[in-house]
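Task card 7
Instruction: Convert sequence to structure tokens.
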Amino acid sequence: LLLQLSTGDIERDYVVLCRGWVPGHVQAVVTRMHWRDDAPTVSGGRGKTSWTKLKVRAHGVTKVGSTSLAAVRIITGRRHQIRSHFSHMGHPIVRDCLYTSSDTFQVDQAICDRNCLHRYRLAFLDSGQSQQEVLLKLPPDLTDAFRKVQGKSRASGMALRGWIDGHECRDWAAYNSLRR
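Output:
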């Protein structure tokens, strides 16, 4: 497994709820990242190249602002990669204490008590070279957070409902991005 991890052969899929409406055509973030000790990871500029693929699945609104739900696959695995990349795009993860302003962090408590980021799928080859897959539905606190989001469109509402009901856990490659 360590060899697969170092060569990028383990598939790691996440779902995130972030601030604002990420345009549906955005499919990847590729930046250099660097970090020091306990300081937040910085995207852009110097450091190691990092690559995050995403598919915007829903645009929504809550009582505290607009949100996007995205399915994410990390190709590299840098520290805080998803959180840093979404912040770099101008769409920080809901309730992220490191990569958003303290005011936004406080307001986001109306949606959830923690980061709205969840790894729902892990796929790898076992020692017999058979594909193995582990799927994990949203935990109750994130299910409650997703219920607080009203879809901007019928398609967005259906995608949100699918995550809430547990039907949306599948291979990242099977998703389509939200159309305009």
